[in-house]
Amino acid sequence: MGEKYKYATFDRYKVGETSFDNETNTLYNMGINRIVLWGCLLTLSFLSMASGGCSKKGKSAKSQAMNSKIDFAGVWLHSYEDEKENGAKCYRPKSYDFPPSRGRGGIKFTLEGTFAELRIAPNDAGHVEYPGKYKYDDATKLITIDMEDGRKLNWELVSLENGLLKIKELQP
After folding, report:
1. Nearest Cα to 164, choosing from 47, 105, 80, 69?
2. pLDDT digit string (tens) for 3-36?
3. Which one of 105, 123, 134, 164 is least enclosed by Cβ atoms within 10 Å?
4. How many CB atoms lie within 10 A of CB 5?
5. pTM score
6. Count of CB atoms situated within 10 Å of the CB of 61
7. Same structural domain for residues 42 and 99?
8. In terms of residue numbers, what domain contains 26?
9. Is residue 7, in this structure, part of any structural domain at all?
10. CA 99 to CA 96: how far, in whole Å?
11. How do residues 115-136 score in pLDDT, each as one tens digit?
């Protein structure tokens, strides 16, 4: 057959004018596989550390205070269909599949302690945000909101179950 041949043999094969050794190619692929494996392991360990690891020990008081806000952080839209008890207002996440409605007001909590009351825009195109800051006391389940327009709201977190947030407005 000579120096040039078209088909692979057990030891060597040639593509164009470049020859590849099967043994070298196998070692090369093993090296790439190891790099990919180590990259995956490093990524997983980084994600584990970023999420706080498996243990809750050693968390600072600040991170524990932030965790009490995590439960209801996000955009919640008014779900008047669920309001049946004790005058508590009901909210569901923005992603919830609501029945048809002309518009829904809502509320927005962030992990940083900011709040926004979402009112239906005058032209029915989205919401107008009225900003404020909130504090949540996990022991008493009280949410205190200081609105930028000077209003002060006091709410009690009645429950948060299965994507349904129930809040009762308290008199100041």
Report:
1. 80
2. 554 444 444 444 444 445 555 555 455 565 566 6
3. 123
4. 12
5. 0.59
6. 7
7. no
8. 12-50
9. no
10. 10
11. 999 999 888 778 999 999 999 9
Together in a domain, 40 and 68: no
39 lies in some domain = yes
Sign of CA dihedral 82, 86, 87, 90: negative
- Residue 169 CA to residue 143 CA, distance in Å, equals 10
Helix, strand or coil, per DSSP, at residue 140: coil
Is 95 inside a domain boundary?
Answer: yes
169 is written with which tokens?
């407005």
Q: Note whether 94 and 106 are within 8 A (CB).
A: yes
Phi and psi torsions of 78, nearest 5°? -65, 125
Residues 97 and 156 both lie in one domain: yes
What backbone phi and psi angles, to 5 degrees, belong to 36? -65, -45
Per-residue pLDDT tens digits for 32-43: 556 665 565 556
